Amino acid sequence: MNKLKFIFIVSVFSLNCFSQNKFLKNNSESEELSRNVSELFSQNKISNGINNLSEYWPLPKNELDALEEKTIKYLNLIESRFGKSIGYLKVNEEKIADIAIRETYLVRYSMSAIRLKFTYYKSTKGWILNAFEWDDSFTEEFKNN
Fold this sequence. Notes:
disordered N terminus; Nuclear Transport Factor 2, Chain: A; globular; DUF3887 domain-containing protein; 145 residues
């Protein structure tokens, strides 16, 4: 019984472990990470992009794996419908004082684009990725230009 209890505790602990183990020092490093991941997405190297994010994102590994799997599936579908990627560009950056930054990039395809949003938060140890999302709706970006 004790052995089973020990295995259960270790299993629960490992499920809740975070992949994140690094901190970004400043805004330049967050911008470099966003740019790098956007480039990897434009090259359809989704696994590499998610792996780069995981170093700075306190999200459990099982959630990162699920995000990676779904993203690969949908981006392959997008590529089959909208053509090959033709690059990426940064379209917006927003700040809340010196504690949060959101950067928005578009990955362009032959006939459409997807939007990548990176939100960073200044923790007590340094900058971390607080949120990452992507979608195929970039209409609100017209309001920012």
